[in-house]
Write a structure and sequence with these properties.
Elements: E1 4-9, H1 14-18, E2 25-28, E3 33-36, E4 51-54, E5 57-59, H2 65-81, E6 86-92, H3 98-102, H4 114-128, E7 134-145, E8 148-151, E9 162-163, E10 165-168, E11 172-175, E12 181-183, H5 186-199, E13 202-203, E14 211-212, E15 215-228, E16 232-244, H6 251-254, H7 259-282, H8 295-299, E17 309-316, H9 323-336, H10 353-374, H11 377-386, H12 389-477, H13 482-596, H14 599-608, E18 609-612, E19 617-620, H15 623-628
Parallel strand pairs: 1-5, 1-17, 6-16, 6-17
Antiparallel strand pairs: 2-3, 3-4, 7-8, 7-12, 7-15, 8-9, 10-11, 13-14, 15-16, 18-19
Helix pairs in contact: 2-4, 10-12
Binding site for ATP: 92-99
Domain Kinesin motor: 2-339
Family: Belongs to the TRAFAC class myosin-kinesin ATPase superfamily. Kinesin family.
């Protein structure tokens, strides 16, 4: 299934109203569209600045916190309780209302955000479940500040500790040494949220006095154990990630300097990496998804294209001076709509702590039960006195079985103790070997000490002789002919400098010649490219003219085709009407012939008519022509071959 994307527009702030800002956002909840106008006036003549985007759901400033949660986050939380992974992600420009959407305010229940509502629904679901169901709820809270992962639930003795990302085939990407606490009630998890909010990095900018300077992820893991009388125990693990991203910022608007500028750079970098991941997931041709470009994208790897049901809440501001940021946010969210995830139920994972806890509880209960039976001989004797022989035998067998199980438990315990003893002995043995090796190295070092001392003494003697030789050479250089030698040395040095200078001049000349040659080649190449550009421009213009002509011809052909189709339908309708009329006439004439013309006369007529293909008409043959050709136009008597005479009419009646 694809990532669900919703957009929420906050109301105008008091400062924006005081500054006389215009609203450039139009929200159509029926059509699920967002219209952004560049000049702040809807339906203006400059339609090029009007952008329209369509999403799964859109909300204006009248949307309440409860409505947003019920329609957006509630399905995700429900799926987490059934074993799916879920992520609710808030994205948008700074001061667009992301933290308000995710956390809200604690002053009133109507102002609480998605995170407190999710807490309430999780524990409400647990309280309404069957008594046989078991739940284990764990929570962790981290932030990504300047590309460093910090544990917001860490003890006060180690605040802001940097954590590392690790990856394993079973657990995927996880944070090493991240505090993950088990919670038992709604008050426990709300207390953890309050602790994390106090430790989170927050700062003031020109656009927001309480701007979040880091990305935060609150993770809730819910392990559910359901007892099925037919199939046995089922364990499902669902993980809910509640992500509050830091807002994208512009330095010119926020006035960021110093630490705020560094935070801005890292925030925009991680959001850019997130955008690159979304673009790569949407583009079907990309073979590499750059999850490793940022720690944020690595932590959200499953939420974007993995085993998670994800919903993104894009927050925008309505003021016209944020037009570019709003359009950028909407484009960002519009691309995210095409991401396909593959969520599945996490059933019976290897690291299900709930199963381990239940197994330990059952094992301890069994041991206690065995010990009680073994230490209650009086109870057994009383049962023997009350029960029959078969029952006593069954009970005796059961006691023997329990004794055997106890012996097996004791045997396993002895084996474990033996293994622990072996491990302890191996450790002591390794410590002894380490001690022996250390003593051996110390002994070798002690044996080598005289050699080191003699070597150091030889080095001192050699340095002493070298210094003495250098002093003697200095004395020789400072003899009586020292002035002449200085002049010779100075002249030699000047000659070397002159040769070096001439060499530099030659190299510079060669470089100048090479540069001139390259410039000439570039000029020739540039002129050639200009000619080629002019030729291609001319060709492009011709092709554009051909394209425009073809486009016009195509439009004309389309119009002609539409006219032809219309004419065809009209003619077809006329033909059908004509055919229907002819059919009616044919039926009428056939009925007249059948009812009013005798069959003998009809046969005579059919003998005389002939179809003419040229005129497409029935033509009566001439009776005279038929008589001359030997074909009698009269009915012939078969006895004497004479034409039959017309019968005389009855008295008072004319002949037929």
């Amino acid at each position: 299934e694809r990532v669900q994307v919703v957009v929420r527009c906050r109301p105008m702030s008091h400062q924006e109203v005081m500054d006389g800002r215009q609203c450039c956002i139009v929200v159509d909840q029926q059509e699920k569209t967002i219209e952004v106008s560049g000049d702040g006036r809807r339906g203006s003549s400059n339609d090029s600045n009007i952008k329209v985007f369509t999403f799964d759901r859109v909300y204006d400033s009248k949307c309440t916190q409860n409505q947003l949660y019920q329609e957006v986050a509630h399905p995700i939380v429900q799926s987490v309780m059934h074993g799916y992974n879920g992520t609710v992600l808030a994205y948008g420009q700074t001061a667009s209302g992301k933290t308000y959407t995710m956390e809200g305010f604690d002053d009133s229940p109507e102002l609480r955000g998605i995170i407190p509502h999710a807490f309430e629904e999780i524990f409400s679901h647990i309280s309404q479940s069957q008594s046989s169901d078991r739940f284990l709820v764990r929570a962790s809270y981290l932030e990504i500040y300047n590309e460093e992962i910090r544990d917001l639930l860490a003890p006060s003795s180690s605040p802001g500790t940097r954590l590392e990302l690790k990856e394993s085939p079973d657990a995927g990407v996880y944070v090493r040494n991240l505090t993950c606490l088990t919670v038992h009630s709604l008050s426990d998890i709300i207390r953890l949220l309050m602790v994390g909010k106090k430790n989170r990095s927050v700062g003031a900018t020109l656009m927001n006095q309480d701007s979040s300077r880091s990305h935060s992820i609150f993770t809730i893991t819910v392990e559910t154990s359901v007892e099925d009388p037919e199939t046995g125990l089922h364990i499902r693990v669902g993980k809910l990630n509640l992500v509050d991203l830091a807002g994208s910022e512009r330095m010119s608007k926020t006035g960021a300097t110093g630490d705020r500028l560094k935070e801005l750079t890292n925030i925009n970098w991680s959001l850019t990496a997130l955008g690159n991941v979304i673009s790569a997931l949407v583009d079907g041709r990309s073979t590499h998804i750059p999850y490793r470009d940022s720690k944020l994208t690595r932590l959200l790897q499953d939420s974007l294209g993995g085993n998670t049901r994800t919903v993104m809440v894009a927050n925008i501001g309505p003021a016209d001076y944020n037009y570019e940021e709003s359009v950028s946010t909407l484009r960002y969210a519009n691309r995210a709509k095409s991401i396909k995830n593959k969520p599945r139920i996490n059933e019976d994972p290897k690291d299900a702590l709930l199963r381990e806890f239940q197994a330990e509880i059952i094992r301890f209960i069994g041991l206690i039960y065995v010990l009680k039976l073994m230490n209650s001989e009086n109870c057994v004797n009383r049962l023997k006195a009350q029960l029959s022989g078969d029952a006593v035998n069954d009970l005796t067998k059961e006691i023997c079985t329990l004794k055997n199980e106890k012996e097996m438990v004791e045997k396993n315990l002895r084996n474990l103790r033996q293994q622990a003893g072996c491990l302890r002995a191996e450790k002591e043995r390794s410590d002894e070997e380490k001690q022996k090796l250390t003593e051996q190295l110390l002994k070798q070092l002690k044996d080598m000490q005289p050699h080191y001392e003699s070597f150091a003494k030889e080095k001192e003697d050699r340095d002493f002789l070298t210094n003495k030789l250098r002093a003697l050479e200095d004395k020789v250089l400072h003899g009586s002919n020292n002035d002449n030698e200085k002049l010779v040395e100075k002249a030699k040095q000047q000659e070397e400098e002159l040769a070096l200078y001439q060499h530099h001049i030659q190299e510079r000349q060669q470089l100048d010649e090479e540069r001139q040659r390259k410039i000439a080649e570039l000029e020739v190449k540039c002129s050639t490219m200009e000619e080629e550009l002019e030729m291609k421009t001319t060709k492009f213009r011709k092709l554009m003219a051909c394209y425009q002509q073809s486009k016009a011809d195509l439009a004309s052909l389309r119009t002609e085709l539409q006219d032809t189709i219309h004419e065809f339908h009209r003619e077809r309708t006329d033909l059908l009407l004509s055919l229907r009329s002819l059919e009616q006439q044919h039926q009428l004439k056939s009925l007249v012939i059948e009812k009013f013309i005798p069959s003998e006369e009809l046969a005579k007529i059919m003998k005389r008519v002939e179809w003419d293909d040229e005129t497409e008409r029935w033509v009566f043959q001439s009776m005279v022509a038929n008589f001359q050709s030997g074909i009698s136009p009269f009915i012939v008597d078969p006895a004497n071959k004479q034409p039959l005479q017309r019968p005389a009419s009855a008295v008072g009646r004319s002949r037929p």
